[in-house]
Design a protein that fits this description.
The complex is a heterodimer of chains A (241) and B (57).
Chain A: H1 9-39, H2 54-81, H3 84-116, H4 124-145, H5 149-163, H6 166-176, H7 196-240
Helix pairs in contact in A: 1-7, 2-3, 2-4, 2-5, 2-7, 3-4, 3-7, 4-5, 4-6
Chain B: H1 7-44
Classes of the chains: A mainly alpha (241), B mainly alpha (57).
């Protein structure tokens, strides 16, 4: 099957039904292994056991940005090819991305209180992630309040592209400005600065969260396709009445 | 496994994450059931999408 074939909603539904049970099972297994590794990961020499919050915070931060990146690519599909599945992908990713950004903010605050002495500071990294969360909420509000799905799709695609400017700001905020938030310690030009005893559980948890994101996204896309079919059938019903 | 002096922050972080993920899962699973039920109801009443109609050109 060519990749372009998946751009057909009916084929996507058939594939989703086949893939989702396996994807959910693999996600659960990787999560179980990741949590096992987290439980037996050593304490950090500075953070102590509080480093365990990083196994949630770092993957959710990555996925918060990846979610918007996915929406940006899909937004191009909406604006350039006007493909309905592209808008389905944007709409389905918004609540999931918002949830992971919320997890990132909450776990970051819970780590910051014992480590920094405060739940929140208005530094560039924290503020730009808060802006990302507000952008996600804006995207959700746009879909919830729009009467015309086609106009909503175009507006959402434009918002996704405009909001994409914030992603490099989040990534490089710790380099461009003086921030309380520490600089990158995994994705660095000279390799990770974390000991393998902590890095490996972190990467396993990142894989688990990524699998969870895609499982939820495919399931949410399936729901959205069905919702649009319901809308289409109700319009046919109204037209024939 | 000892969680040290900041155990409450660690436990709350994991509980909050579990609640958010569980909320997402429940919402998506329930939404799927709702959409399937509405679709079945419409189909049982003989309503078809435009692409399913036999008289389309």
């Amino acid at each position: 099957m060519a990749l372009i074939d998946l751009a057909n909603p009916t084929r996507f539904l058939a594939l989703a039904s086949r893939v989702l049970p396996w994807l959910a099972a693999v996600t659960a297994i990787v999560f179980a292994y990741g949590l096992y590794r987290v439980a037996y990961a050593p304490d950090d020499y500075q953070q102590g056991a509080t480093v365990k919050i990083m196994f949630l915070h770092v993957p959710s931060a990555w996925l918060a940005m990846m979610g918007w990146g996915l929406m940006t690519v899909a937004a191009l599909g909406t604006l350039v090819w006007r493909h309905p599945l592209a808008d389905v992908a944007v709409k389905a990713a918004a609540p999931i991305g918002a949830a992971f950004t919320f997890i990132c903010l909450v776990t970051g605050s819970l780590w910051g209180r014992p480590m920094w002495g405060t739940y929140w500071v208005w530094d560039a990294r924290l503020t730009s992630v808060l802006v990302l969360f507000l952008l996600y909420l804006g995207m959700l509000a746009l879909y919830w309040t729009a009467d015309d799905p086609n106009r909503a799709a175009r507006a959402a695609a434009i918002l996704a592209l405009v909001g994409a400017v914030n992603i490099p700001i989040i990534k490089f905020s710790v380099d461009w400005w003086n921030t309380l938030h520490q600089p990158a310690s995994v994705v660095r030009m000279d390799g990770p600065a974390i000991d393998p005893t902590i890095l490996v559980p972190l990467l396993v948890m990142a894989l688990a969260f990524t699998l969870l994101f895609f499982t939820l996204h495919i399931a949410a896309m399936r729901n959205e396709i069905l919702r649009r079919r319901v809308r289409s059938m109700r319009m046919m019903q109204a037209a024939n009445a | 496994m000892s969680l040290g002096p900041h155990a409450s922050f660690i436990v709350v972080a994991y509980i909050a994450t579990a609640l958010v993920v569980a909320g997402l899962l429940i919402w998506i699973v329930r939404d799927y059931a709702v959409q399937r039920r509405i679709l079945s109801d419409l189909e049982s009443r003989g309503i078809k999408r435009r692409s399913q109609r036999e008289d389309r050109v």
